[in-house]
Write a structure and sequence with these properties.
Elements: H1 5-12, E1 24-27, E2 34-39, E3 60-62, H2 63-70, E4 78-82, E5 86-89, H3 96-101, E6 108-112, E7 128-131, E8 134-137, H4 140-156, H5 160-163, H6 170-174, H7 181-190, H8 192-195, H9 198-208
Parallel strand pairs: 6-7
Antiparallel strand pairs: 1-2, 2-3, 4-5, 4-6, 7-8
Helix pairs in contact: 1-2, 4-7
The structure holds zinc ion (ZN).
Length: 214
């Protein structure tokens, strides 16, 4: 089932084998693919709690899905996956150029670790940003919001503690030319839906962190 970003990443990686006994035919519990499968217990920690998210019942995994789970969350880099390639990014902020420029297309998917406690690659979906605990459509509104956030952090100089508030502090505003105030206020307000979703707000922070705090 190569329509899945995790499977596309597996192909781009050269179809690596996984550390498990030889696969046997079965149905993948995560993606539903019928074909060679391995038992998930050989791949996934006993502490894994995500089985409820597997719609196909079995605790077997196809090789691409097993591979997607075989990398520990702590070592997962940020990724831009396309139907033919995978690009790794050493910091999430390096993905901001991609994510501010346009919506993700139906042949692009982004994996963005923040807390590094969960497997994110297996949750990736085309046209979506997948981060710890959330998979969200990356549309033009998201690209515009991220553009606003980059502008507020870099040009305006807003700090992250300031950005946590629903309105800009008056001293930040008064330090800007008056003709910029409407833009500062509208950009600040546009971020409110993201502030309300902690995993998304954490992702937004990682995507816009300046180099010194990476
Ligand atoms: Zn699978």
């Amino acid at each position: 089932m190569l329509s899945d970003p995790a499977a596309a990443a597996w192909v781009a990686a050269g179809r690596p084998a996984v550390d498990a006994p030889a696969p046997v035919d079965g149905r993948c519990g995560r993606c539903g693919d019928n074909g060679p499968t391995v038992t998930s217990s050989r791949i996934i920690s006993e502490k894994f709690t995500g089985f409820d998210a597997w719609p196909f019942g079995s605790r077997r995994l196809c090789v691409p899905c097993a591979w997607a789970y075989s990398r520990q969350p702590t070592t997962q880099p940020s990724l831009l996956i396309t139907d033919t390639s995978v690009t790794e990014y050493s910091t999430g902020a390096d993905l901001a150029a991609v994510l501010t420029s346009a919506p993700l297309t139906s042949t692009q998917a982004v994996v963005l670790p923040t807390a590094r406690r969960r497997h994110i690659l297996p949750t990736a979906e085309w046209g979506h940003l997948a981060t710890d605990g959330l998979v969200v459509t990356w549309d033009s509104a998201a690209a515009d919001r991220l553009t606003d956030l980059v502008w507020l952090r870099t040009t305006v100089g807003a700090t992250w503690p300031q950005l946590n508030h629903s309105a800009p502090p008056s001293r930040l505003l008064s330090a800007q030319p008056a003709d910029q105030w409407p833009r500062v206020l509208s950009a600040w307000t546009s971020l409110q839906p993201w502030r309300a979703v902690p995993p998304l707000w954490a992702a937004a922070r990682v995507l816009t962190n300046p180099p010194q705090s990476r």
